[in-house]
Amino acid sequence: MYRYNKSDKVVKPALTSTRLLDQVRERIRYLHYSLKTEKAYLYWARFFVLWSAKNGGMRHPRDMGGVDVEAFLTMLANERQVSPATHRQALNALLFLYREVLGLDLPWMNQIGRPPERKRIPVVFTTAEVQQVLSFIPGVEGTLARLLYGTGMRLSEGLSVRVKDVDFDRHVVIVRSGKGDKDRVVMLPRSLEPALREQLVHARAIWAADRARGQTGVYMPHALEVKYPRAGESWAWHWVFPAPKLSLDPRTGVERRHHLFEERLSRQLKQACASAGIVKHATVHTLRHSFATHLLQAGTDIRTVQELLGHSDVSTTMIYTHVLRVAAGGATSPLDAINTLAH
Predict the structure, then answer these.
(1) Rounded to an integer, what distance in angstroms lies between the CA atom of residue 193 and that of residue 46?
(2) pLDDT in tens, 95-123
(3) Are 248 and 214 contained in the same domain?
(4) Which distant-in-sequence residues (6+ apart) come within 8 Å of 290 by Cβ?
(5) Active site residue ranges
(6) 313 with 232, same domain?
(7) 212 exposed, middle or buried (CB, 10 Å; 0-12, 13-18, 19+)?
(8) Distance of alpha carbon 221 from alpha carbon 236, whole angstroms
(9) pLDDT digits (tens, 9 = 90+) for 46-56
(10) Which residues contact 64 (CB under 8 A, 6 or more apart)?
(11) pTM summary value
């Protein structure tokens, strides 16, 4: 909870740690940022401090300012040649450090140049290519890949699906805490139902083995583990795609069952593209791009696609219409016109 002072101004809770990186970690967890964001912001805060030590001696960020931050970002752009997205992530991490951790909001923080966001045309598979790729991905990874293409979920969302979130009666899957910490409902492909039921049989065997050994339950989001101490051991909260081995929770150090690691499907997809002879620079996210594009090609309303993808703004979904316009032959190349006249 936030405290209030005598002038009724909101005061952020005092940090209990004394080490800078521990303070960053504490503030991130207080704000319920994702583990990926925590790792990224800690990396940039550490990098910034170590960089300053090589360029003027070890100093606390409180003793540095806009000139130092600009110099650090310039080094990233010129020497490291990082992408604009990485550049923005580093800047966001440093702004978080100064505003949220050190409690500073100085004029120079709003004057730092931010690289423009580049709009990239997404890589999209054709329906034939999707069939080829999926045919080369067997087992649990194949079921996961079909789920991602059939629902448009992000990889992290598909991996995080719990047993209770799959509704075979209504043929839907509930996506919990997606990007922006939003929930949404997506369709459950009827053709995937047999494979998904088989995956649940496999997952239940793993769950039963964990219970027989008295293993700690799965991770519970936010404070649910405190509110419902035994819920993490229940079948309802178990992962649909559990990892085959136990691992340490990076935040608590508790050994428990996590879901499959992202790299497993990424490796399988890369191998599948090579086996199918597909030279497109495809990633797991290409399945999501293909889902959206193929829905629009089939005449689905763009607002419906927006909701299924979980986009806050329809302009984000509009990027897929650019692919469709060219692919649908919206304009004829003048070279084709010349060849037609020649014949």
Answers:
(1) 46
(2) 999 999 999 887 777 777 777 777 778 89
(3) yes
(4) 124, 125, 130, 149
(5) 154, 179, 285, 288, 311, 320
(6) yes
(7) exposed
(8) 14
(9) 999 999 988 87
(10) 52
(11) 0.81
